[in-house]
Amino acid sequence: MAVYTQVSAEALSAFLNKFDVGELVSAKGIAEGVENSNYLVDTTKGRFILTLYEKRVAADDLPYFMALLDHLDGKGLAVPPAIKDRAGAEIHELEGRPACLIKFLTGVSVTTPTAAQAISAGAAMGQMHAALEDFTLTRPNSMGVESWAPLLERCGQSLDQIAPGLFDRLSNALKRIVARWPQHLPTSAVHADLFPDNVLMLGEKVTGLIDFYFACTDVRAYDLAVMHG
Known about the structure:
The chain is an alpha+beta fold.
């Protein structure tokens, strides 16, 4: 259940008063997702997503994520930017957590895409990369190749409890991967988490790319590998 922080109706109504989005009609926690607390919010003027950012998403990274979404939205891509309040602010605090009111996008995540849906998703990824060519902000990939050795060390010899010799096998495999890691592929801002659950579709049409909270600067092929995987 992806609702870790509870928000009362009174607190949510007060929060919405900062925006020109009408009055609260209903709010329901969203079960999907594992990182943040999400609510589906209906008001007298429309439907929105309220996201409260839990511990994995650093508050200092939010300006980067919001700027990237604003950039893509400005290029006409189907992404969910944060709604600005009457003062122009996108990032707020609610119940002690950083919070944003997010544009609602229609569509569903397809668990097993057809070939036609996969082609559409790949085209949407390419359009995203093209739109990000002139995005100037940067952020290191917190899940990139540089993070894998420290992660392996944290797991340590306990991996051998899963299978004898697993730690050594993974250590050797990681050394081979790092030695062969490409150094000259095209680099830009990337989504870095383009699994099927972060691609919304209606039929064979992509209606939205969502959940940009791993977005970073890395080789574009990283997105291709994640989507293919």
